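Blinded run. Sample ID left blank on purpose so nobody reads anything into the name before looking at the predicted structure. Input follows.
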Amino acid sequence: MFPNETKNTERPLTGHVPNIILWAIIALALVGFTDSAFLLAKRVSGAPIPCFITSGCDAVSKSPHSVLFGIPLATWGVLFYLGIGFLALLYMDTKNLIVGKLIVVATTLGFLSSLYFIYVQKFLIKAFCVYCILSAIISTILFALGIVIWQKLKMDVAQLES
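Blinded prediction complete.
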């Protein structure tokens, strides 16, 4: 920039995340929350988990691998999906770059966790839970939306730097 030149920060940022993507994240977070809350309720009550398509839901939920730091994975799922939904609402309201980046980080961690949990089901427990697979699918879609958000945020940063 030349000495008397100022950045044009008044022009609208073109890379902002469209609300439709944020609403999709919120909807997916709601489905994931419901899925995780259902599994948590079944775990707490000790009731069997009705399993259609696969037959390993109880084997997976009663496995020693279904707990992390002494807390059932379903609890972590509830917290994850609540957090993702909250971040999407917060970003929708504030358009804060840090919040947008947190969405990207959280969806990436959720996806990587899901990959690991699918591995555990396949190779360690040798059984699949349809509800866990649903959560993995939701996490994968959230990750894909996180990539879209990342691309939009990169456009914002590039525009601010120009």
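Unblinding after everyone has recorded impressions. The chain is about 70% helix and 0% strand.
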